[in-house]
Amino acid sequence: MQLLSQLKTGQKATISAIEADEYLFHRLSALGFRVGKPLSIIRRANFNGPLHVRLGTTDVILRGSEANRIRINTPI
Amino acid sequence: MKRIALLGMPNTGKSTLFNRISGASARVGNWPGITVDLMSAKILIGGHIAELIDLPGIYDLHGFSEDEQVVRRFLSNNAVDLVIVLLNSSQIDRQLSLLLQIKKLNIPSVLALNMADEAKQSGITIDTENLAKSLQMPVLSISAKYGDGLPKALQAATQMINQNQTASDPQMISQLLQEDNQIEHEMENLIQHHVQIPTTFTNNTTDKIDKVLLHKWFGLPIFFAAMFVLFQFIFTVGKPLQDGLAWALSLLRSSLLEPIFASSPAWLHGLMLDGVYNGVATVAAFVPIIVLFFLVMSMVEDSGYLSRAAFLMDALMAKMGLDGRGFVMMLMGFGCNVPALMGTRIMRSRPMRLLTMLVIPLSLCSARLQVFIFIITALFTAKHAPLVLFTLYVMSFMTMFLTAVLFQGQYKNTEPFILELPPYRFPTLRQIILRGWHEVNHFLVRASKFIVIGVVLVWVLTNFPSNVPPASVGTYAGQIGVLFAPILDPLGINNQLAIALIFGFVAKEIVVGSLAVIYGMQGDTLTVHMATQIDWVQAMSFMLFTLIYTPCLSTIATLRSESKSNTFMWLSIAWSLGLAWVVSFVFYQGARWLGY
Questions:
Q1: What is the ipTM of this complex?
Q2: What topology is assigned to A2-73 in CATH?
């Protein structure tokens, strides 16, 4: 189990837990971040910029601080 | 009158649908219970006039963002007869939750599935007929952009309206909204039965474009180049339009208005022509730029590139408490502050929007540039001129950065930075033109009165009492200049320049013209005379002050109408005046101390 922010670019994973306050949790789930959903990181912006994440049919960008709230499982 | 609300998630083409149904008739209006403006339009539906309201795009009826609260408050304070819920067909698997939340409130609703073409291309098939049965409401596939399926959807809406179901009861909705509900299970069930989604899903074209535009190293240079080209486009096309408009307005004045007021007393002649008419001309001068700006902005926004710009610029902007979208507006401010301020409406978090609006007026706009070029030509050699101008640009960036850093604690952004990257889409010409029209309309309605009154006021200050020459030290403006002499003398700004600064409140475009009136000479004579009156240290101090203090009345009017807060407007004026004074003071005294 690791954090989404630690996932390597291009590698696939599934969401195992979302540890966010209610506000962030609502926003994340509305955009499709739910436990068990597969996702991958398409790219990262330079200088510690945002992550470009793909979840099913949706592409989302989010900052590292938000990505730290999402725990993931990578297939072994 | 029946009331229909349009609701959907962000990036579903909701505004496009709204514009398509309402055409150019939309108006901005205030609603009970909420503080933000919502667009609404009177539309003819099934022989009745109904009011269509464009609610903000939201992800979740129970969320905590400002827009989500706005929608909740709207529904808890206003009865609606029908809600048209617009969802993106390709993302129905997660967007259906919003519809189910609305359904729980027992408001009569119609589901419109937008971008049916995109979903089809991705291999998504939706069984609308059976979905409608399960949901017990009409479900229709449409294309808001091209209007496909729209007549059918409107027909369904008409039927719903004509059934004369009771309108929503705001009080009951307010209660229902407090109860939490279990929608996820129901959503999965519906999707499983009525929607087929291929397991691997990629939008190939978008992926390919993103590989270039979001490239690790080329992304930013491409972004800057694109911004530069758009910027050049706005101002190379806008300048001749503005000049043409100015020419037409002066022709109207000389051929029609001058003869009409020729025999009237001097004060009335001055008030009507130099006051009111000049005010109208000031307002008109902004129209071409605002139209062009929003033509370009709607292209950048609707194509999906704006979210990409946010991705590219976020690392830097986060340090200033702003986000990448604010950067596009800050850049645009270097052309003209007014549309840049209006453009901040794309930022949905109010604190961040206010912070961006506080920063924008510090950018070296094209009107300020005119003043600088005039003074630099008068007082600096051709060798030093580029360096001086460059210094002013650097100062502009530095004051913007300083303001953002100092105020980011005050305007703390609480919204998480999570944005959807929509696939690239080409906006239609109709979308682009409607947007430009709405924005100009908005500016004219909200700002013109304020600007005309301001111009008249400055005219009074610089023309009365009537027994002294206009714009001389004897006028009220001159007396204010004398009054502030103890404050302005330490900056090297004399009485004449102080009067020019008062003119500059109206617009920086008239500062050079006002110097001509103040010194009573024009062209080369004026530049030569200026060079004998002030030295380069004074000139630089005057330019720094001009750079930082309030850009123009139109900017103030826009700040006021966009923030809906007089306090914020005064804060912006006070901060820029204070900062201008401090910077000029430090420069002038420092230079003098060093012996210049």
A1: 0.92
A2: SH3 type barrels. (2.30.30)
